[in-house]
Design brief:
By secondary structure, the protein is α+β, with helices and mostly antiparallel strands. It has 2 domains: 3-78, Glutaredoxin; 86-204 and 226-231, Glutathione S-transferase Yfyf (Class Pi), Chain A, domain 2. 56% of the residues lie in helices and 6% in strands. The protein contains 10 helices and 4 strands. The protein has helices spanning 15-25, 32-36, 38-44, 68-78, 86-110, 123-151, 164-179, 181-187, 192-203, 205-211; strands spanning 3-6, 29-31, 57-60, 63-66. Strands 2-1-3-4 form a 4-stranded mixed beta sheet. A hairpin with a 2-residue loop joins β3 (57-60) and β4. The relative contact order is 0.14.
């Protein structure tokens, strides 16, 4: 079955977590808006009895699945990126939802007053939010995942088997290195397990090929991870 991924064509954003899972799985998929245009994606959001609220969403046969964590919950079970037991799958889903919470906090460093305003309209508030982000939120979230990885008994956050959450943690580390290189350089000694996990993910053959291809959209200042020099001091 060929999957159809619907997401904005010029940013990694929340769709990147799905792309990484599809790439690691070696799944047959097309990135619809990049190949057929945004209007095709927008029409999909207006069709059917259960339309998605916003991208990303995935078309799998007759199913249309929205929300990043929900898509990964579906893909994980189908492609060996999640435990087989119900309890294990729910635990992994819980971890992905925690990743999702953190992604919102990353976004709010540059848009603390809301996404409808430009960054230039909220610079002072963004500086204040970013200071709090690095003092309180990053240690809390990444410290949590660092501890889980250290106690897992394997190379990955839940043990010896790679899951979609490991791919998502790779994206968090990669994005923070882009957006806040100075902050991350100072903080990385606190998360050696996550940094090692990032390195192992980047070296996996399918992920390495993806990262080197034009399918991997570069980080930019329209996505979630944005590099503003004034915030990385």
């Amino acid at each position: 079955m060929r999957y159809e991924l619907y997401y904005w064509p010029s940013i990694q954003g929340r769709g990147e977590y799905v792309r990484l899972a599809l790439e690691e799985a070696g799944a047959d998929y097309i990135d619809v808006a990049r190949q057929r245009g945004v209007p095709v994606m927008m029409r999909m959001m207006e069709e059917g009895a259960t339309p998605p609220f916003a991208p990303p969403f995935l078309k799998a046969g007759k199913l249309v699945i929205g929300q990043t964590s929900n898509i990964l919950f579906y893909l994980g079970a189908r492609h060996g990126l999640a435990p087989k037991s119900e309890g294990g799958r729910l635990w992994l889903h819980q971890l992905q939802l925690t990743v999702t919470d953190f992604v919102v906090e990353v976004h709010d460093t540059h848009h603390p007053l809301g996404p409808s305003l430009y960054y230039e309209d909220q610079k002072a508030e963004a500086k204040k939010r970013t200071r709090e982000f690095w003092k309180e939120r990053v240690p809390k979230y990444l410290g949590y995942f660092e501890d889980l990885t250290a106690k897992s008994g394997g190379s990955w956050v839940t043990g010896r088997k790679l899951t979609y959450v490991d791919l998502s943690l790779f994206q968090l580390v990669d994005g923070l290195r882009y957006a806040f290189p100075r902050h991350m350089k100072a903080f990385e000694p606190e998360i050696p397990k996550l940094c090692a996990l990032h390195h192992r993910i980047a070296a996996r053959p399918k992920i390495a090929a993806y990262l080197a291809s034009d399918r991997r959209i570069p980080f930019n200042e329209d996505g979630i991870f944005r590099h503003y020099k004034a915030l990385d001091v």
